[in-house]
Design brief:
Strand 7 and strand 8 form a beta hairpin. By secondary structure, this protein is of the alpha+beta class. Helices cover 33% and strands 20% of the residues.
Length: 391
């Protein structure tokens, strides 16, 4: 490894670019849901990359007034305030041609370093970013401190070889995520067809769904635990879970749907369908989950589609009570929610159509988790030189 260069990020062949903070910075009233230029905020950059479920845009005239902070293909964006260390890569498949950064983040532009290796390097450094951050209520990583973080750079051919190995895993994971988004969109279309447009009758929620069903779990039993932060906004599968001794929390089983009941998690569409437990096993998680379980011959996946339905979510959000910033859905407010219900024959058709979609979603999610574990194992070994790639 004598040919590897030891340096700091400030000495590395990259540019670190801040956003525009001048007089032409757009006002909140100038943002829209569509437009010429995507204006990134911290909610668009997560631990797993970009998310565009809630996006702000500015028009071309405002974009032209800004002097800096505009991304190019191949750039990274790094969050430096609040949740420090999230990284997203502006590659060719990102569906926006114009992107600027908001406050609380910087652009990392490769300038003599392989751009895909650059992305893997900054993912590897995520724990270092958090160590260098200062402040407790609102952690920050100033650019001057970011530039002092030490790194080790292999020669360009080895950078490209390392990036090829890790990027092939990322590409497969990304493909599976995109397949799942397509499958979920199809499932939601079927839900609307049979239970909204094709409804033959109306029922109350509690006629077909159990809310927070009772389950027994002995205190001190070590079983899978799901944190709210690992429930995703755009996927039925949680990103992670782990074993933890039960003390007090929400209990659930396979087939249940977990829906966030607290602000802002509910507004951010955090919903999970449980399929990661052993048969008959009870898991547990945050007290801020609502558990929805389908009754009778209603497919179990129905409750996930219901929890993602815009009408149901709007009703739940409007029923929240409590002080500002800590509002929650009260369970009894959902009891009399009315929803459409198809004939028994149409219900059977829905069940037949939804079963292979749910099965494929579960298979893809298991494969994603396996590939992510492999990638996360290889990343530090390749970046440190512990494992070398044959050129």
């Amino acid at each position: 490894m004598s040919e590897w260069l030891e340096c700091t990020l400030g000495e590395a062949p990259i540019e670190i670019i801040d956003g525009d903070r001048g007089k032409n910075y757009p006002k909140t009233t100038e943002f829209s849901n569509t437009g010429y230029c995507l204006f990134l905020s911290a909610k668009n950059v997560t631990a797993t990359g970009f998310t565009f479920s809630e996006s702000n845009f500015i028009d071309q005239s405002r974009d032209k007034l800004l002097r800096q902070g505009k991304m190019k293909r191949g750039d990274l964006v790094l969050t430096t305030r609040g949740t420090v260390g999230n990284v997203a890569y502006y590659h060719n498949n990102i569906p926006f041609d114009h992107i600027r950064i908001n406050s609380g983040m910087v652009i990392i532009r490769p300038d003599g370093i392989d751009e895909k290796f650059n992305y893997q390097l900054f993912k590897f450094l995520s724990s270092s970013f958090q160590v260098f951050a200062t402040g407790s209520a609102q952690p920050q990583l100033p650019i001057r401190d970011l530039k002092e973080i030490p790194i080790t750079l292999p020669p360009l051919p080895e950078q490209q070889a390392i990036a090829a190995v890790l990027s092939s895993l990322d590409d497969k994971i990304d493909l599976l995520h995109r397949q799942n988004k397509t499958l979920e969109a199809l499932a939601q279309t079927l839900f609307r067809h049979w239970f909204v447009d094709g409804a033959e009758a109306y029922v109350t929620l509690t006629e077909i769904v159990d809310i927070n069903p009772s389950m027994s779990l002995k205190k001190g039993t070590s079983v899978p635990y799901l944190e709210m932060k690992n429930v995703q906004s755009d996927s039925c599968a949680p990103s992670d879970w782990y074993e933890r001794e039960f003390n007090s929390g929400t209990r659930f089983q396979n087939g249940d749907t977990l829906m966030a009941r607290i602000t802002p998690c509910l507004e951010n569409n955090k919903v999970a369908h449980v399929s990661f437990l052993k048969d008959g096993q009870v898991g547990w998680g945050s007290t801020e989950f609502l558990v929805l379980r389908a009754k009778g011959n209603l497919p179990k996946f129905y409750t996930y589609l219901l929890a993602k339905d815009s009408d149901f979510r709007a009703f739940a959000i409007n029923s929240m009570t409590g002080s500002s910033g800590r509002q929650r859905v009260q369970t009894d407010s959902l009891y009399e929610y009315e929803l459409g219900y198809p004939t028994e024959n149409n219900l059977a058709s829905f069940a037949e159509q939804i079963a292979p979609i749910e099965q494929k979603l579960q298979v893809n999610s298991k494969q994603i988790r396996t590939l992510e574990k492999l990638r996360d194992t290889l990343l530090p070994k390749l970046m440190s030189g512990e494992v070398r790639v044959r050129l």
